[in-house]
Every structure is written in structure tokens, then in C-alpha cells.
Amino acid sequence: MKQIMIVMMLSIFTLGCAQKAPEVSKTQFSKEALNQKLEDENGKNISVQEILDQHKGKVLVIDFWAGWCRDCLKALPKAEELEKNNPNIDFVFFSLERSKEKFDNSLERFNMKEKENYWFSSGWENNFNKYIDLNWIPRYMVIDQKSGIAKYYAISPEDPEIQATIDRLLK
Predict the structure, then answer these.
(1) How do residues 22-69 score in pLDDT, each as one tens digit?
(2) Among 2, 124, 118, which Cα is nearest to 55's?
(3) Which of 124, 73, 118 lies closest to 100, judged by CA?
(4) Rounded distance, CA 32 to CA 117, Å?
(5) By CB atoms within 10 Å of each CB, which of 51, 53, 66, 96 scores lowest?
């Protein structure tokens, strides 16, 4: 009986925590999502729209991560490889750390200081993350030159569709 209960609990935990692909791949951001504020390393508020505007005309990869996320840390070397193999592409990193102090510590600890980093000071539950169906990290999105969503959902920097999307957008 005890073994059955343990198996049932593990099954429920696994089902409840597994990353589930969104049913719809969105191609544009909602107004509410674009108005979502993040903070940069200096504590300055910036909206998603302002971040996208800074990269307009370029292909942009958004990497969602956190220093507490084992899967994110395991993916970092491959994310760096993707970045190195695409020098004409912009990369930004959206952190889901739980505090500014942890955000700062993770940037230092994982050598992310030279990259463009922002964090959701409002926490995981916010208009942007709800709109993009963020239910797990790491997560990667490819944004086209006009700030549209070209690749909505990828859970690994090794997903071949990321590179295929980048290549298609650069043609």
C-alpha cells in the first residue's frame, strides 16, 4: 500500500511539473504583454516593448532562465554555443530569479554580466509570462526583425527549429 501511494504521488508530481507545449503558437504579443515591466541590472524599469524596440531590425533570441534552475544551467553551454554560432543575432536573457540580490548573484556566478539581462521583479506570474504560456524554464523564443514571434516555443538551445528559424529570417 505504501509503495502504491509513493508511485501515485510521484506520478502526480511528474505530471504536474512537466513542461507542456502550448496548444497555440502565437505570432504577435498582446498589448498587455508588451507593457510588462522588467528590471535591468541597474534596477531600471523597462517594458518588453522597449526591449523589442532596441532590437528592431535584428533577429532576437529570448532566453528565459534562472540560477536555481538545474535544466537552465545544464543548457547554458549550448545556449552560449548558439550565440557564438550566430554573431549577427541579438540575444537577451530574461531571468526568473526570486529577488534582485539573487539575480545579481546569478549574473556574477554564471558569467552573464557581459550579456543583456533583465529580470521579472514582479515574479513569474505576470502579463507577459501568462501571454506566452510560460510554464517551465528554460524556454527560448525567436523574434523576427519586426518584433513578431517567429519561433514561439523551444525548451532547448539545441532545438533544430531555433537555428532553422534564424536561418530563414536571415535570407
Answers:
(1) 788 899 999 999 999 999 999 999 999 999 999 999 999 999 999 999
(2) 118
(3) 118
(4) 21
(5) 53
User: What integer pLDDT is reported at residue 9 of this predicted model?
Assistant: 44
Q: Check residue 30 and report its DSSP letter.
A: -
pLDDT tens track for 59-89:
999 999 999 999 999 999 999 999 999 999 9
101: how many CB neighbours lie within 10 A of its CB? 9
Domain ranges across the chain: 25-170
Closest CA to 156 of 90, 93, 61, 78: 78
Structure-block grid coordinates of residue 43: 534596477
Residue 142 CA to residue 59 CA, distance in Å, equals 7
Write the Ramachandran bin of 43: left for phi over 0, alpha for psi from -120 to 50, otherwise beta.
left
Note whether 169 and 145 are within 8 A (CB). yes
> Which residue, 147, 154, 165, is CA-closest to 29?
147
- How far does the chain reach from its first CA to its final CA, in angstroms? 60
List the grid coordinates of 168: 530563414
Say whether domain 25-170 belongs to CATH 3.60.110.10. no
Please give the full DSSP string across 138-153, using - where no structure is assigned. Answer: SEEEEE-TTS-EEEEE
- How far is it, in rounded angstroms, from Cα 145 to Cα 42? 27
